Structure formats: structure tokens, C-alpha cells
Amino acid sequence: MRVEIKIDTDIGESVAIIHTPKITPELTMWIEMLERIDGKSSVLFAKNDNKLFVIDPTQVDIIRTEGSDIKLYNREAKGYIITKTLGEIHEQLGFNFVRISKSTIVNINRVDHLSPSFNRTMYIVMKNGVSDYISRNYLGDFKKRMGL
Fold first, then answer.
1. What is the rounded average pLDDT of the residues 126-137?
2. What is the pLDDT of residue 90?
3. What is the set of domains in the chain, with CATH numbers?
4. Which of 91, 22, 103, 33 is nearest to 62 (CA)?
């Protein structure tokens, strides 16, 4: 890998731009590390059984709206309730999390498999067994992020 650094005293914050033919596990690791430096991927606070839990984002598979609640499912498929909006959560989590519909965000590192579904949508199953549909509006961005 070639690394270039440009010093620009006119910008307010550091920006990393990566040009790559595809997303690799090593590249994902570097992206996660850079995002942590910027404060992204910090812990989430969520409730379950009247207790407040601190959740590491790397342990999250899927976050979605269920009724009036925003639920987070971890690797054990245990559902936690989050008080933030889906947009706030998505902004906080960073690169490895991608929106697949108006009501769902997934961790792309925790996707188990995909299958085609009706009306040009896709069905996604996470490693914890929780599943959902990728809507047509978000399918292009999802495929790009997955390198498909």
C-alpha cells in the first residue's frame, strides 16, 4: 500500500481519503482505527430489563425501528432499546454500519448471507440470525459498500 500525506493548514480537521479497487478486511480494520481517532464508533447506551448497558459497536449486528422503539441486536440476538434516533445512531457508528432501509442499519462485518427477494429487494440475514429486507432505495449503496 502506498501512503501519501498532504499538509493543508487551511482545513479545520484531518480527512483521510482512501482509493481502493475493493474493501478488504485489512482496509476495514484501518478504517475502524481511523474512525475511533475521530470519536466515531464510541460506545452505545441501551436499556434492557430496566438496566442500562454499555454496548461496544463491534458487538452490534443490526439496529432497527420496531413500533415506537429503536432496538439494537447484538451477537447473541438480544434486543436492547436505544433512546437516540436512527439517524443519530448511524452518524455515531461510522463506516462499518450501513442503512438498508428507512428503519434499519446493519453492521456490514456481521452479515451472514444475502438472497434475492421480490420487487428487486434483497433479504439479509445477520450472523446472529436476525433478518430484514434491503429496500430498493438503499440497495445500490449497500452493494457498493459490500464491494458487490
1. 93
2. 87
3. 41-146 (2.40.50.1020)
4. 103
Length of the chain: 148
Q: How far apart are CA 57 and CA 43, in angstroms?
A: 6
| CB atoms near residue 16 (< 10 Å) | 11
Q: What average pLDDT does this structure show over 98-112?
A: 94
Cβ atoms within 10 A of the Cβ of 147, count?
A: 11
Q: Look up the pTM and report it.
A: 0.71
> Is the model's pLDDT at 38 over the cut of 70?
no
Residue 86 DSSP SS3: helix
- Could you tell me the three cell numbers for 29? 480494520
Q: Are the beta carbons of 72 and 80 closer than 8 angstroms?
A: yes
Strands (E), the chain: 44-48, 51-55, 60-66, 69-74, 79-82, 97-101, 104-107, 111-116, 122-126, 131-134
Indicate if the pLDDT at residue 34 is higher than 80. no
